[in-house]
Amino acid sequence: MTQRSLGVVGCGTAGPALALFAARAGFDVTLYERVVDPGPVGAGIVVQPTGQAVLARLGLLDHVMARGARIDRLLAESGRRRVVDLDYGLLGSGVFGLGLHRGALFEALFDAVAREPRIQLACGVDVVAAPAGPDGRRVVVDATGARHGHHDMVVVADGAASVLRGADALEKRVDVYPWGALWFVAEVDAWSHEATLYQALRGTQRMFGMLPTGLGPLSKGTNANRQLISVFWSIAERAVADWQQRPLSEWKAEAMTLAPVAEPLLDQINDHSDLLFSRYYDVRMPRHHADGVIFIGDAAHAMSPQLGQGCNLALFDAMVLADYFRAMPDQLDRAAAAYHRDRRHHLRYYQWATRMLTPYFQSDSRVRGWLRDRFMGLLCRLPWVRGQMIRSMAGIKRGILRRSLSLNELHDPGV
Question: Which of 131, 143, 181, 312 can bridge 51 by disulfide, Cβ–Cβ 3.0-4.6 Å?
Fold first, then answer.
């Protein structure tokens, strides 16, 4: 093939994964990151079977597994009612989620990028536009007005709050969810809800979650003998300022009424600033690509984390797009269009499902909370519905009636 150059914007999850796949397929890649010295940040995520398959193809799964915690079950309770109880094992004995500190995933990807000779890492470059140059190839423009590179394709993976998405003429709708979450990462010697993502609910306005998160990033210097538990508290963004003014002891007491098991985790929180607020976006782009540019990951389809799919969809985006680039190296715009056709059902299903489900867990609606508590647990007991919910959790659904991705396909997707 003619030597091709890719510019990839964003060094979160989709960006470095795409850069690695593309470089290994023979492309020259420049990976742009606005942070001068990027490092591991964030709290817990769940790497679903889809994400695990991508990391396996990158040769990173064993490293990530060693830092994570196996998740076999999602359990959500509202008082004495079991609202959701889903077990990955119904899909097969080797199927599970992986609770992981987001920083541990970043380290695995970033270290692999640093070792890849075909990837040039350009940190401290805050990309704000990617116009076409005189020769028709794309350049990237940073916040100072400086221009970088001449790329046959620019892949935008700069996250849910993408700056480039606003600079491009592609149709889009971006909404900010009124509800988000406060996060804290605690350390424990042992945990009573091992291998379980546990959520304690009260209506749609109170949710306290605990996710086993493994050992965390190596560079954080976490105690190798202690497990991390990511704690999250649902809260409306408008209520954060008032929460910060409340005595911390009052909030802890409220959290304890939902989840008494959380006491050793709450004891590690000493100040309001120990918890960080995460804002959630709902991004809709009917078309993810234009001549010479394509959006992937949260930049293209950010959603509420209620189904735990964000990083997994981003990783899968990167793998599938790189496969099309490899198959059509001299027709990258055609490859981008083929990628979009390939991904549309998978992505639309999770955007729809997340948009429908989120208000039953995070909203001001009392009716939705009542309906959830009385009927969702019953639905979970119906074999067909239960199977669909578990497949949705695992990340393999492509529509309500469409055939799901098979577990074998995850490890040999092809194009």
Answer: 312
